Amino acid sequence: MDSFVLAFALVLFASFFQGTFGLGMKYITPLKWEAWWLVYSVIAMVLFPVGWALLVVPDLWEVILSSPEEVIFMAMLFGFLWGIGGILFGVSVEYTGISITYGIVMGLAASVGSIIPFFQIQDAFSQPSFPVIMIGVGLLLVGVFITALAGINRDKVRASASVSNPKSIGKGVAIAVTSGVLSALLNVGFSNASAVAEAAADTGVSPQNASLAAWVVVLVGAFIMNAGYSISLLFRNNSWSSFGTAYAGKSYLWAILSGLFWFAALGVYGQGAALLGDLGPVVGWPILLGLALIISNVWAYRSGEWDNAKKPFRQLLKGLAVLILAVCLLGYANYL
């Protein structure tokens, strides 16, 4: 199979997981948010990534410890900052629902998370793919804007029918914007941890699997932020007893599934990005998030978020069409 086709297939597969993991946030109750988030974080940022990496990179800890200290520090720092965005993502979903949150967060994360690694490439402006990437990212932002606007109009329609609280929309959007900017740093951290992946590849591991070593480093910082915040809330709210709440089996199940889906998206995306070469984090990241936005809206539609909102839904479809065009352009950019 052609490496580009395989890479695109992996990114497409990853986008399914990325667009699906947020469903679990609809099933936090009866657990407290902080209890649910801690379980999710342990699965998504420690158990699954470390377990997977150890299976394919036998010398994982030696590889990490032998990598330059500044690389490890910066990767962990970007992961920590992303962790703030990840927490805000979960908060925003509770205010605005899946559609608006995914629209804003994915759009900003995709564009900022693509442009920063691109500018870090030597002679970036002289790359033949530069104008196509910029047009693709620009279209991505347009598609996300249309999608987010459709979600806001949907909530206005539903608010007029006393389905939601319109006062929460503005606050939720503000939280989502902050989350989107910080969420971009996850891919920046992955791109800057390339030295760790290269060190893993030097031990005989395939470039695709070597990318998992880079994720382990980035997610150390992410876990410190997420777990630290959750534990602080557990103490502040005295909510440790939430772990023993009756009838919480479904909440625990979705916390575990969300964690598995979330890192499955990153792990598979990293393998696809490795096959795309130097432009992998630049092209693969916005494709991943653009397709994930489409998938998340499929789930949102099935869950009834677009009921009784026909006009905003047609607007949503236009936004998704622009996103598909942007994804196609970004895929073409890797050929240049």
TrEMBL record:
Keywords assigned by UniProt, alphabetized: Cell inner membrane, Cell membrane, Membrane, Sugar transport, Symport, Transmembrane, Transmembrane helix, Transport
Task: Tell whether Transport is among the UniProt keywords.
Answer: yes
Transmembrane portions of the chain: 6-25, 37-57, 72-93, 100-120, 132-152, 173-190, 210-231, 252-270, 282-304, 316-335
Could you tell me which Pfam families the record lists for this protein? RhaT
- Classification via InterPro entries: L-rhamnose-proton_sym_RhaT (IPR004673)
Name it. Answer: Rhamnose/proton symporter RhaT
Q: What is the lineage of its organism?
A: Bacteria, Pseudomonadati, Bacteroidota, Cytophagia, Cytophagales
